[in-house]
Write a structure and sequence with these properties.
heterotrimer, A mainly alpha (309), B mainly alpha (185), C mainly alpha (52), B: 185 residues, mainly alpha, C: 52 residues, 0% strand, elongated
């Protein structure tokens, strides 16, 4: 039975999220080192995390005639979106905020990246940065509706928008097993809203970093950390939505939640290096003409199952 | 609760007013977004959790798409020079102030009856049922008609037709589109 | 009292939207005014059935 934790747990959520994100970043660093042929040492594992104090101490760049208000606001909303989205994720048997509309809250908080990245791209008064921001809007238009229908499929399977109910409804069979299309669409969308992996196009190397081009210092740390926090929040949300939450035989619920989250994170971090970066115009038509009907049909499956019951 | 209202309500009204004061179109759109976020938060405060979160969700997406159009179509998107594209400001101000005073007079003069009963257990569901319950089929049909209208309007507005895309005999596959990729339809 | 405050906010948003819709020259800004009017109606429609 998932209960809502007391109010101070809202402060624990960013710390826990940051811990999992740090694990993901470390794994990514180790995979990068192995791909480059370098030996795996502890210094390599600590490498990405050593960026944190370096960026914090670095000078924040300001450009000419930049819209500083929108720029900083946009950059800050990306990690804020990750943390806010993680508020409804149950960790074992506790959740920081048990909302009756938890799934919609998660969706609304990850949509804040639309606003954040567009503002971060616009505010810098730099052409490459602007192109990066617009690339994210194009990507967002493609992934958002399939993601919404995938979330609706999971919610329809449990007949509730409460994340705790969705986790509890998987006691017989995980949703990832009988709603595989929704699970795959969800994982792809996690890459998309955290603009990592095949959807790193807004921060692409052909744009000198895109939205990251004009950022340095604490702003760069905020946006880079925001990407990984969003990936971690997405991975964490996959667990109660599709993988049964904290249910499991021997270990306590929080251990199962952590293990499943780490498994999904490992899959996402591994896949990040394996998949090429896609341009939005190549998959926009696919997303609208193929993925949306597929997601709608997938959402029909739990509805029919519920009618038959 | 009333304290949160006194934070959100002036925020909604002030950012709504700033929409028409900013010279920068980007800031005007974000100000409208802030106004909508404050209204969404007020709806959550009133107990309509689903409606409030859905307002936040929809309005973020809508405002960013509107920002793209604002930057594309407005001539001074960054507001680097002060700009004023208004007409008839004094009369518009008079009309809006008059309508606000009339509405405020009505709000304070109407003897609002005390609430008979309590709010229902699930206010969102009850609100939806009350608004749409007797006309649910109409609402569903309206949704499809709106979608069809949007798609039709876009198809009619593009100046490239199927003869441009598929050739004079309508047999060229894949279609000759400026944006490559896609599923070859 | 709370009902009147919410309705006052709704009327205020509506009036600001009306000002914008009447005074702006470009269609996009007029649309922003219309959106603000809708915002006011949303707040009023949310408050009226849920009071205590």
């Amino acid at each position: 039975m998932i209960t809502s934790a007391p109010l101070w747990s809202v402060l624990v959520v960013p710390a826990l999220l940051a811990a999992f994100a740090a694990a993901a970043v470390t794994a990514d660093g180790l995979l990068a080192a192995r791909a480059a042929g370098r030996p795996l040492r502890a210094a390599v594992a600590a490498g990405p995390l050593a960026e944190v104090p370096r960026l914090l101490a670095g000078q924040r760049r300001s450009t000419v005639a930049s819209d500083a208000l929108l720029w900083r606001l946009g950059v800050l909303s990306v990690p804020a979106a990750g943390v806010l989205a993680a508020l409804v994720i149950p960790f074992g048997d506790v959740t920081a905020s048990r909302m009756s509309v938890g799934v919609v809250w998660f969706n609304a908080m990850e949509v804040l990246t639309w606003a954040g990245l567009w503002m971060a791209g616009w505010g810098a008064n730099s052409a490459l940065s602007l192109v990066g921001g617009y690339r994210f809007v194009a990507q967002g238009l493609a992934y958002e509706l399939p993601l919404m229908f995938a979330l609706i499929a999971a919610a329809a399977g449990a007949q509730s928008l409460d994340v705790a109910d969705i986790a509890a409804a998987q006691s017989h069979l995980w949703f990832a097993v009988w709603m595989p299309a929704a699970f795959v669409i969800y994982l792809v969308s996690v890459y998309a809203f955290s603009f990592l992996g095949p959807f790193a196009y807004p921060a692409g190397r052909d744009l000198a970093g895109g939205v990251l081009a004009e950022l340095s210092g604490a702003d760069r740390l905020a946006l880079e950390a925001g990407r990984w926090l969003l990936l971690t929040a997405g991975a964490g949300m996959a667990v109660p939505l599709f993988l049964g939450g904290g249910a499991g035989p021997v270990l306590p619920a929080w251990a199962w939640s952590a293990a499943k989250t780490l498994a999904v994170l490992a899959l996402l971090v591994w896949g990040r290096r394996r998949l090429p970066v896609l341009r939005a115009d190549r998959y926009a038509e696919l997303a609208w003409v193929v993925l949306i009907p597929l997601a709608i049909v997938q959402a029909l499956v739990p509805a029919l199952v519920d009618l038959a019951r | 609760m009333i304290a949160i209202f006194w934070v959100l309500a002036p925020l909604a009204a002030a950012s709504g007013f700033m929409v028409f004061r900013f010279s920068s179109m980007a800031r005007a759109t974000i100000a409208l977004l802030v106004s909508f976020l404050a209204s969404g938060a007020l709806l959550i405060l009133l107990g309509l959790g689903y409606l409030g979160v859905v307002v936040i969700l929809m309005m973020v997406m809508e405002m960013i798409i509107m920002a793209v159009f604002m930057i594309a179509y407005m001539m001074n998107p960054a507001g680097l020079m002060p700009m004023s594209m208004t007409h008839n400001k004094p009369r518009a101000r008079a009309i809006s102030v008059t309508s606000f005073l009339l509405l405020a007079a009505g709000i304070f003069a109407v003897p609002w009856p005390p609430r008979a009963g309590a709010p229902p257990a699930s206010p969102t569901f009850q609100l939806g049922a009350a608004l749409m319950g007797s006309q649910m089929l109409t609402m569903v049909t309206l949704g499809f008609v709106l979608l069809a209208t949007m798609v039709t309007a876009i198809v009619l507005a593009t100046h490239r037709g199927r003869y441009d895309r598929f050739g004079d005999d309508l047999k060229r596959r894949p279609a000759a589109d400026p944006a490559q990729g896609g599923v070859g339809m | 009292m709370s009902l009147q405050l919410f309705l006052l906010l709704a009327a205020g948003l509506f009036a600001i939207g009306l000002y914008g819709a009447l005074s702006q020259q470009s269609i996009v800004m007029i649309m922003m005014g219309l959106e603000l009017m809708l915002n006011g109606v949303i707040v009023a429609a949310g408050r009226l059935p849920t009071g205590r």
